[in-house]
Amino acid sequence: MSFAPSTRKGTVGVAVIGAGNISKQYLDNLTVFPDLKVLVIADLFVDAAEARAKEYGIPEFGAPELALNHPDVEIIVNLTIPAAHVEVATAAVNAGKHVWTEKPFSLDRESGLGLLKAADAAGIRLGTAPDTFLGAGLQTARRIIERGDIGTPLTGMTTFQTPGPESWHPNPAFLFQHGAGPLFDMGPYYLTALIQTFGSIRKVAAVGSSAKATRVIGSGPKAGEEFAVEVPTHVSAMAQFEGGQSSHSVFSFESPRQRMGFVEITGSEATLSLPDPNYFDGDLKLWRPGAEEPEIIPSTGPANGRGLGVLDMARALRSGAPHRATGELAYHVLDTMVSISESVESGSFVDVTSNAPASAALPEDWAPETATL
């Protein structure tokens, strides 16, 4: 989808809907990027919105309607719970606002496609987390791969393994329900990194399991309470990409040994170990044939954290250029995860029919702290 440059000039007005924990990570950045101005923070719990507004010096706070109807707000940053993502994003589209949504884009294909079609018809931009692939770590990896340092990229491997979050999370039951589990909770980071390297996924095959039908909360006021496990807590998935490349991924809440952030891309000449895709920076390791130790490559570029995708959207809004963390990319990730779940249930390969549009690399000197508008 192409966009004309915005008729408005200067800084881009932003409103945040959702004043929970994740809002702090966003507001730490959104309130200091000079090309953005956070005008409103809203929440169903107005007291929570008021507390965040006072903490960050945001001029207005209130219920979500305040953000949706504010004349100077151009981008809604949707940080609500996953089950409300599509509802809030659709309301923003209907209000004529561009939308940045935390992951997941939606919980099913139908609502996700409906949101894409509504935004397209309205000429509205959609952006969705994770925007970690815009950070220095994964952008440096992209430059290394596109430069040909590993030869032709052939295969990928990713691993996310933990014992599960119930030991430390005070209210973990939602992480074991529909729309979560290790696949839907952490899969967007790893799958986005793979898609940025190899392009769209064409088919998947997977197996999954759950070691326990129930789990017990280990900390906080609900410690000792038992809750049901509704989704696979270990998923092993293979994917084939549009260019014929393949990958293998493990997403698990069942490993006593914790292994997170493992992403490797193997090419015809070398293997590249990427930084944790849940973060914005980190060193890379380049393994060449016969080498006993890898070459350590520091990442370069912006690594401010959550909100880089919002800023990229805002600057693109003014210029008319495409933004990078698009709704189409997020929908393709969702479609892939749903297809993996279907493969777990059916025991067969599942075709992935959606596409992830290619995005331009982020310039190494892209400076979030510099005013450009």
What is the structure about, briefly put?
This protein is α/β, with parallel strands linked by helices. The protein has helices at 21-30, 46-56, 64-69, 85-94, 109-122, 136-147, 181-198, 308-319, 327-346, and strands at 12-17, 36-42, 60-62, 75-78, 98-101, 126-128, 153-161, 201-209, 214-216, 226-228, 234-241, 246-252, 259-267, 271-274, 284-287, 295-297, 350-351. It folds into two domains: 12-128, Rossmann fold (3-Layer(aba) Sandwich), CATH 3.40.50.720; 133-297, Dihydrodipicolinate Reductase, domain 2 (2-Layer Sandwich), CATH 3.30.360.
CATH superfamily of the largest domain: Dihydrodipicolinate Reductase, domain 2
The major β-sheet equals: 9 strands, mixed
End-to-end distance, in Å? 23 Å
Which shape, going by the Cα principal axes? globular
Radius of gyration from the CA trace? Answer: 20 Å
SSE run = EHEHEHEHEHEHEHEEEEEEEEEHHE
Return the average pLDDT rounded to an integer. Answer: 95
CATH topology-level fold name of the largest domain? Dihydrodipicolinate Reductase, domain 2
Spatial sequence of strands, sheet with the most strands: 16-15-14-13-7-12-11-8-17
CATH class of the largest domain: Alpha Beta
Task: Indicate the percent of residues in helices.
Answer: 25-40%
**Low-confidence regions:** none
Structural class, judged by helices and strands?
alpha/beta
State the domain count.
2
Number of strands: 17
